[in-house]
């Protein structure tokens, strides 16, 4: 018995070698109506422009689960590790780029890898290089004989709030938003939301973080998104049928590590910043997540400044000296009593997710020891006084929150006890003995003085 004729949605089988979002634009008349309904239902959450059917291209003809001809694949945008394709083909677990002119394509190793865990050393690097099992480049004639958007990262980085929200999610959206470089401050965009996020190397039980922030951010930003995992990938690969990804963003951590921006910052999400983009590119995601948490910027008076100190003193690892912590709190409370600033000493693990997001949305200056709690900086409103202050063990430094702060147009200061530094005078990355310890020094008076300086910038320079 021949299989039933599939719908367009079923034909848009999305394949992912690790983490990937599938941006799928339906091409058939019935699929067009379905896509239109999905867009309108998500418009309020994403501030997306109304669906315009005139933008839909002529549909491809499908029959018996095969494409009538194989339109060539187009690379819409690319930097190492982050690629947007139109019409990427999937068959038996392999991605196919169909083109009769392969000369202009990026090197395959800059697009995809085997999705193995990231370890150092030339042997490990070579073991991650892609083969024809991961991706093939074929002509239209070859496609007739042979026969998604996906994230191809290893699972080791997914169950961590920072790597999810401020790296994977950050990079995926920065890549996709390069197709709309006119996103205004309110975050409105004509880009349709992603319909699927596919993890080809991850099972469904291992993508959430211990604080349950990963799923909160994803569902708040894209309430209608569907997730697929390695079992779904294996099922699709075993069907022996060709799938077409009308539009796909493919993310691969190992491929991104070849890029110049990664070599400078050790942040894979820094690589898509070589693509065109709006200064307000993140406002779409921030606005949706903040709205979901019941917060809007209008709720915070423009002249009300909030200093948030994210304390790790009960965490048991990477903590300030207790006496320095107490002195810092005293100095911050002096600012409160003298100038009227709101000061919040926050233990994030004792706050609900809504409370954490709302606090970050109100915060003008966020500070704390290097650690996961500072991921909340991505929900701050970027403006003239917005500042992140990060405390390191003297001699230690990492780009994680320093780069993320700057990527959002805010100012970052690092501290080594009684010394503060900021871009361009930042130290080299280092993890000395004591970096992870519980005796990190900080000069509370210096921190307070710098807070006051940042909060007394000239009013006319504000947005």
TrEMBL record:
GO-annotated biological processes: protein O-linked glycosylation via mannose
Membrane topology: Single-pass membrane protein
Xref: Pfam families: Glyco_transf_61
Highest taxon of the lineage: Eukaryota
CC terms in the record's Gene Ontology section: endoplasmic reticulum; membrane
InterPro entries attached to this UniProt entry: Glyco_transf_61_cat (IPR049625), Glycosyltransferase_61 (IPR007657)
Signal peptide: 1-28
Main subcellular location of this protein, as a coarse class: membrane
One function term, GO molecular function aspect: protein O-acetylglucosaminyltransferase activity
Keywords, comma-separated and alphabetical: Glycoprotein, Glycosyltransferase, Membrane, Signal, Transferase, Transmembrane, Transmembrane helix
Glycosyltransferase 61 catalytic domain segment(s): 201-384
Compartments where located: Membrane
Protein name: Glycosyltransferase 61 catalytic domain-containing protein
């Amino acid at each position: 018995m021949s299989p039933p004729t599939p719908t367009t949605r079923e034909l848009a089988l999305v394949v992912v070698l690790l983490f990937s979002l599938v941006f799928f634009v339906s091409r058939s008349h019935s699929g067009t109506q379905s896509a239109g309904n999905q867009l309108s239902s998500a418009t309020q959450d994403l501030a997306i422009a109304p669906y315009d059917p005139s933008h839909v291209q002529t549909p491809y003809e499908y029959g018996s689960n095969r494409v009538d001809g194989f339109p060539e694949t187009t690379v819409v945008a690319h930097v190492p590790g982050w690629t947007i394709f139109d019409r990427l083909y999937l068959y038996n677990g392999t991605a196919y780029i169909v083109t009769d002119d392969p000369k202009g394509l990026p090197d395959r190793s800059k697009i995809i890898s085997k999705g193995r865990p990231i370890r150092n050393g030339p042997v490990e690097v070579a073991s991650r290089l892609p083969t024809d099992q991961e991706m093939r480049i074929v002509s239209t004639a070859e496609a007739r004989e042979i026969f998604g958007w996906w994230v191809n990262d290893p699972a080791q980085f997914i169950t961590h709030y920072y790597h999810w929200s401020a790296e994977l999610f950050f990079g995926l959206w920065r890549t996709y938003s390069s197709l709309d470089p006119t996103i205004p401050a309110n975050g409105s965009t004509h880009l349709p939301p992603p319909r699927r996020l596919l993890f080809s190397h991850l099972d469904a039980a291992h993508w959430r973080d211990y604080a349950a922030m990963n799923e909160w951010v994803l569902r708040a930003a894209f309430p209608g998104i569907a997730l697929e995992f390695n079992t779904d990938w294996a099922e699709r690969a075993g069907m022996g049928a060709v799938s077409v990804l009308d539009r796909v963003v493919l993310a691969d951590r190992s491929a991104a590590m070849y890029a110049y921006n990664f070599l400078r910052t050790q942040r894979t999400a820094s690589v898509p910043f070589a693509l065109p983009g709006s200064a307000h590119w993140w406002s779409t995601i921030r606005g949706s997540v903040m709205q979901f948490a019941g917060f809007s910027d209008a709720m915070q008076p423009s002249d009300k400044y909030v200093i948030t100190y994210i304390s790790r003193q009960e965490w048991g690892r990477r903590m300030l000296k207790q006496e320095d912590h107490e002195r810092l709190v005293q100095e911050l409370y002096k600012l409160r009593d003298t100038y009227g600033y709101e000061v919040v000493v926050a233990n994030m693990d004792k706050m609900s997710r809504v409370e954490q997001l709302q606090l970050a949305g109100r915060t003008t200056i966020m500070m704390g020891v290097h650690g996961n709690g500072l991921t909340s900086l991505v929900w701050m409103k970027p403006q003239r006084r917005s500042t992140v202050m990060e405390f390191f063990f003297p001699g230690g430094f990492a780009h994680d929150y320093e780069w993320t702060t700057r990527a959002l147009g805010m100012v970052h200061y690092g501290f080594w006890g009684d010394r503060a530094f900021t871009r361009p005078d930042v130290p080299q990355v280092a993890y000395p003995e004591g970096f992870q310890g519980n005796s990190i020094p900080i000069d509370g008076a210096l921190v307070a003085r710098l807070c006051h300086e940042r909060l007394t910038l000239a009013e006319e320079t504000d947005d």
